[in-house]
Amino acid sequence: MNASPPPRSRQIPVIVLAGFLGSGKTTLLNHLLRHRAGNRIGVIVNDFGSIEIDAMTVSGQVGSTVSLGGGCLCCAVDASELDTYLETLTRPAARLDVIVIEASGLAEPQELVRMLLASDNPHIVYGGLVEVVDAAEFGATRERHPEIDRHLAVADLVVLNKTDRAGEQECAHLRQAVEATGSTAAVIPATYGRIDPELLFDPALRPDGEEKARQLTFEDLYLEERARESGDEHGAHLHTVYESVDFTSDVPMDPRRLMEFLDSRPGGLYRIKGYVDFGAGDVDNAYAVHAVGRFLRFVPKPWTRGEPRLTRLVLIGSGIDADALRKELEGCRTAGEPGRETAQDAPHERAMWGVLRYVRQPGDDDA
Ligand SMILES: Nc1nc2c(ncn2[C@@H]2O[C@H](COP(=O)(O)OP(=O)(O)OP(=O)(O)O)[C@@H](O)[C@H]2O)c(=O)[nH]1
């Protein structure tokens, strides 16, 4: 009998980090690596020579960084090559929580996103496209590279970086430009790429508490040092640009109403995560939900015996109206007569069609 590999139950989010030359991608990546909240981050870079790989690796993580030499990722690496790198990084031994691909400043990010969505690797889930924009250079870059509008249109999160060098006007201009592309991406202002890592990944939840019990690392020391230098502005400001909304319900959600809510979600609502009980719509499964920008996916998972049938959602965004969102979600609950309905009822099955559009079937290519 063949020894089967150990199960890898979680899908690892893969985030694409894009932006024009010098916009601050590497700075942002380094910031994420220093504020990784216990997560183990794997990085694929397709730059060559100009990045200090050593500076980007964090303690205990050397070996999880794969550098693609030889040019622009979307041109030089075909899908099978990318898959090989992803396969390496998703091995259980790597114990990664998130993978970030830093696209070359000249890459067409949509090509890379398409490759990820079409990937057969069952251990990854697309985690969104983050487009870094140099606020001070935005006007000039746009003149030289009109394709930036195309990049903004497909981004899930736009980081308006270098706001220290730009005036209010440039920032407002960029927001308008993003909206004009038809994009609903959240726009987050930043200096030196200091965005809240929780926008991209969850704090690690390690059952063995290994991260909590560990000794001070270089990362901690670095953070302490920086906090001292800056009077701790740094840490305090990280949490000011976005809001999060928690929603819990023991009444099942109505699939049609929830899909209406999700299909018309406001632009600033950048992330939704959690799981949903659709009651009679599917009595056997909880539906894990994962939304980044406009990307949405449901993954059905059988309820375990005795597990409380709850819907639990966390919504994260900037410029969102938390009370209004919570009310809208409350309005998505079923009238609530659990037990009276059965999954065999045709109307319930039909109501689930909207949800099932976002459940990936084997062999699907969402691109
Ligand atoms: N003033 C200012 N400078 C910044 C900020 N963020 C990054 N920089 C600087 O901008 C320069 C370019 O930053 P990088 O992070 O290397 O940019 P990149 O997008 O990775 O560049 P490429 O790899 O060439 O595409 C560096 O000198 C950074 O220190 C910021 O918010 N404000």
Automatic annotation (TrEMBL):
**Annotated catalysed reactions:** GTP + H2O = GDP + phosphate + H(+)
Keyword field: Chaperone, Hydrolase, Nucleotide-binding
User: Known Gene3D superfamilies for this protein?
Assistant: CobW-like, C-terminal domain, P-loop containing nucleotide triphosphate hydrolases
InterPro entries named among the record's database cross-references: CobW-likC_sf, CobW-like_C, CobW/HypB/UreG_nucleotide-bd, P-loop_NTPase, Zinc-reg_GTPase_activator
The record's CDD domains line, in alphabetical order, gives: CobW-like (cd03112)
Keyword Nuclease applies = no
Which Pfam family is one of those matched by this entry? CobW_C
* Signal peptide residue numbers: none
- Domain (CobW C-terminal) spans 242-333
In which family does this protein belong, per the annotation? Belongs to the SIMIBI class G3E GTPase family. ZNG1 subfamily.
PANTHER family, per database record: COBW DOMAIN-CONTAINING PROTEIN (PTHR13748:SF62), COBW-RELATED (PTHR13748)
Per its record, how is this protein called by name?
GTP-binding protein
User: Per the UniProt entry, what species is this protein from, by scientific name?
Assistant: Streptomyces poriferorum
